[in-house]
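Progress against Task 2.4 (sequence-to-structure conversion) is shown through the following example record, which the project officer requested during the mid-term review.
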Amino acid sequence: MLLRFEGAAYRTTIFLNEKFIGTHDGASTPFNIDITSVVKEENRLVVSVDARRSPFRVPMENTDWFNYGGLYRDVCLVRLPSIYFKDWFVRLDPQSITKDSPIIQVDICIESADVFHANGSKVTGTVWMEIPELGIKKEIIISNGKGESKILAQPQLWSPENPKLYDVKFTLNSIGRIDTVSDRIGFRTIATKGQEIFLNGEKIFLKGISVHEDHFALGKTTNEDIIRQTIRDLKEMNGNYLRLAHYPHDTRFARIADEEGVLLWEEIPVYWAIAFDNPETYIDAENQLTELILRDRNRVSVIVWSIGNENADTDSRLSFMSRLAQKTRMLDNSRLVSAACLIKHGRLVIEDRLVEFLDVIGFNEYYGWYDPDFDKLPKILAYSNPDKPVIISEFGGDARLGNRGTKDELWTEDNQKYIYERQVETFKKCPYIAGTSPWILYDFRCPRRFNRHQEGFNRKGLIDADRKTKKPAFFVMQEFYKDYKSK
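Structure tokens generated for the chain above:
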């Protein structure tokens, strides 16, 4: 029997019936605690959640969003059979699509709570995998708790225009014991070639925006209605992609995105100047990355794993993040790896040693806002010649709702609109920009920002913190995405 925590910020310590049963670091990824040997008919559960910031945690003390603390996502009691499915991973072989003979790859992991197996003998048996709509019923042999298969199939490919999902069912038979699990899974490929991104072999431009998990009434908690409204707002903007910043969002987001046909960039909070030279910090980051990938690697909407945001290009950071990139590909080689990288300000070029380990370059820039010299942006784009696609992962400027003035007057809706107009006109002229996700969809709480215009909020949202009222810059992006044609 397991206790499953979907999210608790930051260090969670669990006691059951006056016995310590486990601890976990990390605010936004799920974890399980085995309570089989401790649980009784009547129980007392104590959960202590330490939300203090630390220079050695991921993220550390210095962030640019409101770090809510405590137990803020669901806690579930999970009753498992003695032999059960621990994990399954179903996806389309990214190479097979180009050969016109799509292959579904399947990996299965089985575990046992039996004393016999716990003492060293691994589970053996068979698993039947079924996808009725595709006429698939395949026997997979389980040896030492593992099984894999490659299955020829002709599924409809999932895309924003056709978010096709299939019912997939697994049935395990091991020494007469049965366990069954099911899922809704889509099939697609995502790849890069040169400076372009390809979905299902077709070039795609990612029309997106960044979003924080922050709500004016519910804080960091969320629900299905809020997630679906976020997606409706994206689609009203003619978008097809969301950057879920700067940490793993609620597990329901990717499942709903699967249904709604929205592409996702998901990331872990390796944010700014964390302790890259601390081994314990790396262990924490890698664990959060692993828990995120294992949670969402069956979600077809997720196309990018991001391993960090705006970190100085030091030797310790390069070692830290290159190892994260390698870990990502070990867990899932069917998606793209990215990070928000840096430029060389002296030479005005996109240049970061981490790029070698990435599939897509994320580029955060705020020309016209933090750096008022907008002319630097076209120079950077002209002086750079990356051999990989670039996503403009952040750009924008603050505007207080209802604050009007001239296009040159900071903090006004008119200035924000002007920044966006100049940005999109510049993007249109750059051949290697493969997508944009401006900062940000909604205004959000931020304790760093207490001037008279912000009053505890980052006001860069294209929609006010009420999540209803749109600012003029929203419609600039709406027109850009409507009219944009891939070059």
